[in-house]
Amino acid sequence: MAAFLPSNPSTSCCSFKFSNLPSKSHVFTLPALPLLCRRSNYHRHHLSLNRVTAALSAVDSPLKSSSDGQDEKSQPLLQVTGLTAVIAESKQEILKGVNLLVNEGEVHAIMGKNGSGKSTLSKVLVGHPDYEVTEGSVVFKGENLLEMEPEERSLAGLFMSFQSPVEIPGVNNIDFLHMAYNARRRKLGQPEIGPIEFYAYLYPKLERLSMKTDFLNRNVNEGFSGGERKRNEILQLAVLGADLAILDEIDSGLDVDALRDVAKAVNGLLTPKNSLLMITHYRRLLEFIKPTFIHIMEDGRIIKTGDASIATVLEEGGYKAISGS
Amino acid sequence: MSALSFSPHLHININRNPKLTPKRRAKPNKIRVSLQTTFPQATFSDPFVIQLAESLEDSLPSSSSSLPQPLPLQKLRDSSSQTLLSTPWPSRKDEPFRFTDTSMIKSSQIQPITRPSSSLDVSTDAQFPSLVLIDGFIQNSALNLSNLPDGVYVGSLLGVSDGIMKRVSDFISEFQCGDLFWSINGMGAPDLGVIYVPAGCKVENPIYLKYLSVEGGNVDSKKLPISNPRVVVLVEEGGEVGIIEEFVGKEGNDCYWANSVLEVVIGKGGKVRHSYLQNQSLNAAHIKWTAVRQETASGYELVEVSTGGKLSRHNVHVQQLGPDTETELSSFHLLVSDQTQDLHSRLLLDHPRGYCRQLHKCIVAHSLGQAVFDGNVKVNRYAQQTDAGQLTRSLLLEPRATVNVKPNLQIIADDVKCSHGAAISDLEESQLFYFQARGIDLETARKALVFSFGAEVIERFPYPSIRNQVVSHVKNLMGTTDVSFS
Ligand SMILES: Nc1ncnc2c1ncn2[C@@H]1O[C@H](COP(=O)(O)OP(=O)(O)OP(=O)(O)O)[C@@H](O)[C@H]1O
Ligand SMILES: [Mg+2]
Prior knowledge:
The complex is a heterodimer. By secondary structure, chain A is α/β, with parallel strands linked by helices. Chain A is 36% helix and 23% strand. A 7-stranded mixed beta sheet of chain A has the order 1-13-12-4-11-10-7, with helices on both faces. The longest helix of chain A is centred in the middle third of the chain and has 15 residues, at 173-187. Chain A is globular. Chain B is an alpha/beta fold. Chain B has one domain. Chain B is 21% helix and 34% strand. Chain B contains 9 helices and 21 strands. In chain B, a hairpin with a 2-residue loop joins strand 2 (130-134) and strand 3 (137-138). The A-B interface holds A 126-129, 149-151, 154-155, 160, 162, 165-166, 168-172, 174-176, 178-180, 182-184, 187, 192, 195, 219-220, 236, 240 and B 428-431, 433-442, 444, 448-449, 451-456, 459, 483-486. Bound molecules: adenosine-5'-triphosphate and magnesium ion. Residues 87, 94, 112, 114-120, 130, 163 of chain A line the site of adenosine-5'-triphosphate (ATP). Chain A: One of its GO terms (cellular component) is iron-sulfur cluster assembly complex.
């Protein structure tokens, strides 16, 4: 069985189906998309187009390993099509036509060289003001994500853990979490909760991440070590929940125990409905959180998609072994 | 310029008997006053100032009572009246007032307050021993002095022992760097509050000084009652004390002028923690002096939050008189209306191994608001191995909001560790985005970040109850009470 999916935009599933659609997100018509993608399982579709890579020929199709017969129920959660984006200030293009489909309940990983655009993609998805989308579309839960404000994206169930979270001096960590949690509750039409109730909600999550309570009274990320910042990001995810969590290098800077804690917490958040998009450089994380698909990013594009075995190839042969195709 | 312009609004009876002491005061002044001359006289007497001084002298309780005034007060008045003879009203041409317009005071009818407002029920924070000054008069009935260690004195100069009286005499009117307002206070202070901490005594509870302005006019009346509260803090060798100064008006937006002076003398190895809250009426003028003398190896820490006043100026003068001395000044000024907030500070380091840190932060949240900071740190030749740092950060939230900052680290010694910086900024976009990425809307994020900007200073108040009080006050002013950060 073939394991590699060539992700050349011209042949990748959704973009070829929509190749005649206008590429600007604003004119994208939404209703058609979920239908199309649901019916034809796009990954399977692509297997037939695959070139077989000898080294990986024994690996199962990513679909089989992930879907366990749930194919028919699985709905697209995030659909990125032909996404290009520039740095707002310099207009330098960083994303050069990204295509990506994440269905409900799937775990994806993006790997790729430093500077290939992985963090940029995740930041563009959550609406970071440093970037401007110039072309393409992003549909999240059936809605045009690109028209939403960053906070609306978050409230809609999209979460990104930052590769380097900023320090916010003067803002207490627990107050920040409390504000964010109440914003979520307002959005869900639930009454806001007070500090004591919130603490009761928060405490078990803190424990699961083996975080000391004094983190709560410190200022957001101020003076946190690299690993502590990552844990804090996951704590936010645990508090707020998400339909799609994008974790940008959540594993870098974590010691072995911390990685296990974080992986356990993340796995604990996974349900058949919600999905994960991890950005990582290392296979170690992928051993703790098993991905359905691995995408390789290069120069602002996803140039390959395959199953977990890609990580092995990478670790042994470096990016040469992949981009050489 | 303004030294020449005689204000017709000044509420003074010129024809009264001239009483201003000392007698050597020359007649020519009087003549000039009555003539309202227009020839140059800036280096001589300013008729406006002379009239003000006279009206202050007339208002003093001593002028009607036969009791002799305690010596230090008499000394203070003599030297102040002497200085006033040759000090003109400051103009924008004088460097210290280049950015600070005092014409709001000058164009009002300044009225000295002659007697304490009677039977006012003043609540103070019962957890601290406290001293209440109403319009500059010490309220003996409001003293709350339980739990003070033996030998500690808090109260009016009129009640001190001979020993303390002598110590106060040693220091009073020794300070040479005051300005006109310093001397006006010296002339008009009806009493002197004294906090005395004997050698080696560490006072556990901070002493709370509540300065209340009760007399006030409304904006249209142009009436500007002036009060001149004055307090001296004397900490002997090895003594430690915390003081909390809070300045407030009565309810409402009255016009008044609080012209206050605090002198602090810290003996060898002593320590003073000074918390300063200025919540005056938004139509008030608030001029304040804090003059500190620190002996060898002593410590002085100031944490200031100023939000009130139409015109507010804090002059801080700290002098390190011996080696191994530490000074820390932290100030946060918040301007939410058409107001000026000015901090003029001067720190003099003359001895080896001194340490000083100054942080000034201000937020101007009104298009007619103006913040001024002139902070001078002078590290003199003998102040080797000094560690000095100064940082000022301003946040301008409205298009025409103004800030004039002049951080100024003057170093003459060569073996010195110094850092300094000034930044005028908007909110950090990456920080705002972090809030949004967690589902918090921009408006709420802005408010939280604006608040956090000042929180860096507020966090430094050593007492939780004061911190909480300031937090809710500041949130109130910023309209962030709806934001759920506790
Ligand atoms: N705001 C920005 N300003 C300038 N250059 C930027 C900006 N954002 C991204 N870039 C550039 O775009 C390229 C992609 O950056 P990005 O952070 O997305 O890479 P990455 O794949 O996440 O790399 P890494 O593995 O090192 O985290 C880099 O060359 C980076 O320097
Ligand atoms: Mg990155």
